[in-house]
Amino acid sequence: MSYDAIVVGAGHNGLAAAVHLASKGWKVAVVERENSAGGAVKTEEVTLPGYRHDLFAMNLSMFAGSAFFATHKEGLHRHGLDFVPVADSFASAFPDGKWLGVSTDLDTTTARIESFSKADAAQWRKMAQAFPEEAAYIGGVMGTPMPSVEVVQLLIKALRKKGYAWVRDMVKLLISSPRAYLDANFESPEVRALMAAWGLHLDFGPDIAGGAVFPYLESMANQNFGMVIGKGGADTIIKAMSGYLASLGGEIHLGRAVTRIIEENGRASAVELDDGSRLSASRAIISNVHPQILANKLLGQSTGAKTLADAVRNFRAGPGTMMLHFALSDLPDWSASPELRRFAYVHLAPDYQMMSRAYQQATSGLLPSEPALVVGQPTALDPSRAPAGKHVLWVQARVVPYEIKGDADGTIAARDWDSAKKAYADRILSIIERYAPGLRGKIEEAHILSPLDLERANPNLVRGDSLSGSHHLDQNFLFRPAGGWSRHKSPVRNLYMVGASTWPGAGTGAGSGFMLGKALAGK
Asked: In 3-state terms, what secondary structure has residue 371?
């Protein structure tokens, strides 16, 4: 069969590209090796019947704020997209029994901060009030091809409206480490830790250059706009995109693996499937797979294929991630305050020292003695994800090694994840119980995913990196996934790349798919 475009991989960026092209009249097919679409956005009953767990991504704020959603919201809502707005977005609990949380009511948040530092409360208010205007420029950069004339035009506009000093400070923010930026703006260790924890959602320990912007953006965006999760699960966006695509005449072929991208005269022209059949594309083949997998497994030995392989050879995975999913009889009883039961995320990352230690241990191949933990409580906000009165808990351990060379605590002897994950999950539970005693007694069933399990579940998560590639400065902006190939083109004509390994990186914002869709369709 012949199409205008074939998308290889049904991650949300691939689906976004397909939806946009189909909305412009292109005949599009999406081919996915798994029996369900979604990539790293999946919701499944992995513990007990009726308990719906977001296996990987949970936070859909980037999708709700994306240009893709703004353009296609009517069609997506027609096909079942449903969000749950979150006013109490995230909090940090501290070992001394104190806590600090961010809610959309600015007076509430600043009152909490004021108990730690009046100066920090005033600074927080100032930053939060300035954020909506500033976000337009920062978000504009994140939603623009890199490099491009549009980025230059955006910078010129910022210079004219905001002035040189503002642009200089924004550039400094983009290249600063979390510690450098936060120490320059806040005096309270608790406020600094509250924000710095967001750096480890990517792969930024407190002292890694380029890591300041994500804590800033997440903190201020959650303060101003709150968080968004999916009604019934994060897969609401996948179901809606899939249904919308079908209504536009697009096709999704599930359970059919692409084994080869066929080139003719230096141009990608078709894909070969695992059953030997072929699908051809006259205008574009869009790869929503990791660029190293694309270069080394799906392409042949053409000049363009070798150029891509050389370009992405040194594209590094970030540290590994471990996911723990629990079916619970009740939410955790946080000793700091019962108010913490209302928050979407509770971070257990109390200070720079702990975050730096965990990061250094993991990147050295050691199981961290105390990883930073993100404890997600989706059923506190969306009871539909579990039977009446029951709950699910989403726990992400940031960060852990892919290859285990040792245990920083000296108590786990195993050196492979299949043998070590149960003991390490028990360590994580013990950490949570310091802050929420009695959690073990509420667990009805558990599902544990090591970094190796993540890679098995989704080969794009190379080495168990849930972000599909480090976001350090040498692999971000115009260097993602490689210098010269950040605009979603490849060295093979008609072959394009989207996904978390490409600009603008990880997250649920559908940025790369929408940017490419617009570029190919001309608008």
From this structure: coil
- On whether the CB atoms of residues 137 and 154 are closer than 8 A, the answer is yes
Contact 472, 208 (CB under 8 A): yes
d(CA 490, CA 292): 12
Alpha helices in 287-384 (DSSP H): 291-293, 303-312, 352-363
- Residue with tokens 């797979």, as numbered in its chain: 289
Residue position matching structure tokens 């260790």 = 189
| Contact indicator for 516, 148 with CB cutoff of 8 Å | no
Residue written as token pair 């956005």: 41
> Which of 517, 491, 466, 489 lies closest to 30 in space, CA to CA?
517
CB 256 within 8 A of CB 295: no
Q: What is the DSSP string of 350-363?
A: -SHHHHHHHHHHHH
Q: 480 pLDDT band (50/70/90 cuts)?
A: very high
- pLDDT digit string (tens) for 155-197? 899 899 999 999 899 999 999 999 999 999 999 999 999 999 9
Outline where 226-334 has alpha helix (H).
Answer: 236-247, 291-293, 303-312
Q: Which residues contact 264 (CB under 8 A, 6 or more apart)?
A: 270
In angstroms, rounded to a whole number, what is the distance separating the alpha carbons of residues 258 and 486? 24
- Model confidence over 136-161: pLDDT tens digits? 888 888 889 999 999 889 989 989 99
> Which tokens is 468 given?
């599909």
* 14 contacts 285 by C-beta, under 8 angstroms: no
- Report d(CA 273, CA 257) in Å as an integer: 6
β-pairing, 267-273 vs 258-264, is antiparallel
Which three-class secondary structure state does DSSP give residue 416?
Answer: coil
Radius of gyration of the CA atoms of the chain, in A: 22
Q: Are strands 2-8 and 28-32 parallel, antiparallel or unpaired?
A: parallel
Quote the tokens at residue 452.
């190796």
Question: What distance in Å separates the CA atoms of residue 511 and residue 517, rounded to the nearest whole number?
Answer: 10
From residue 111, give the alpha-carbon distance in Å to each of 89, 91, 115, 512. Answer: 16, 14, 7, 39
Tokens representing residue 338 in the block = 């019962």
Is the predicted pLDDT of residue 312 greater than 90, yes or no?
Answer: yes
Burial of 435 (0-12, 13-18, 19+ CB in 10 A): buried
- Matching residue, tokens 């049904």: 10
Q: What is the pLDDT of residue 60?
A: 98
